[in-house]
Amino acid sequence: MTDFGTDFSALPRLTFAQKKGLANLGEAIARRLMTPRGGLFYDPTYGLDLRRYLNAVNDEATRFEIEILSAAQCELDERVARADVTVLTLDLRSAEIDVSLTTLLGPFRLILAISQVRVEVLRAV
Predict the structure, then answer these.
(1) How many domains are contained in the chain?
(2) What does R_g of the chain's alpha carbons equal in angstroms?
(3) Sign, CA torsion 100/78/76/34
(4) Cα–Cα distance measured from residue 104 to residue 79, given in angstroms and rounded to the nearest whole number
(5) How far apart are CA 46 and CA 36, in angstroms?
(6) Which pLDDT score, from 0 to 100, does residue 15 have?
(7) What pLDDT score was predicted for residue 11?
(8) Does the pLDDT of residue 64 top 80, yes or no?
């Protein structure tokens, strides 16, 4: 059986709780998408801070860049076989993205809310 690990979470409100399985994977993906590239000293390829796109021009090219770079970043997680990302909303203050992952346990979907201060998992199924 596939094990997606166990970790402590502080998302979204610094209340430490233990996360297991797909919930752990969901939070790991959220952390990956809120960490600036190279934000981990031991992994220069880790991270894509989606918050930097909130003040960007809201056009087709920006949305495409978010979708492609986010999917590539998700696929760097060894528990993810494939990722598809769709920007649902994007404006100057917030965004929502739909992250569809294929794992060894099958499909897993996240809806992430992005604001200037955080990336939050709205829904994980």
Answers:
(1) 1
(2) 14
(3) positive
(4) 7
(5) 8
(6) 60
(7) 57
(8) yes
pLDDT at site 118: 84
Domain containing residue 63: 6-124
Q: Is 67 among the domain residues? A: yes
pLDDT tens digits, residue range 70-101?
999 999 999 999 999 999 999 989 999 999 99
Q: If DSSP states are collapsed to H, E and C, what string results for the chain?
A: CCCCCEEEECCCCCCCEEEEHHHHHHHHHHHHCCCCCCCECCECCCCCCHHHHCCCCCCHHHHHHHHHHHHHHHHCCCCCCEEEEEEEEECCCEEEEEEEEEECCEEEEEEEEEECCCEEEEEEC
Q: Confirm whether 1 is domain-assigned.
A: no
CATH number for the domain spanning 25: value is 3.10.450.40
* Amino acid 5: pLDDT: 60
